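Comment on this:
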Amino acid sequence: MTNSWTDIKNADLVVIMGGNAAEAHPCGFKWVTEAKATRGAKLVVVDPRFTRSAAVADYYAPIRQGTDIAFLNGVMNYLIQNDKIQPRNRQKCCGPA
């Protein structure tokens, strides 16, 4: 897990991809469940395996092994096509619109 516990506790959306935080980081995963309970945060788990993290997820995407880059490219395409990225950040990564 790369975010601080405070970030996770205050998140509106948590995405776990290719890992099982509920088993690998049980002390940190409690902040995910707390964010779900107190803030109404959503948990998305993207993993070929149905794990303990997936069991408590709001959305579970059981992708096939080796398709994670295609999945992420699809997410990025959706975000760009539907103007879901802040213009300043979009300009940094994609150039002028």
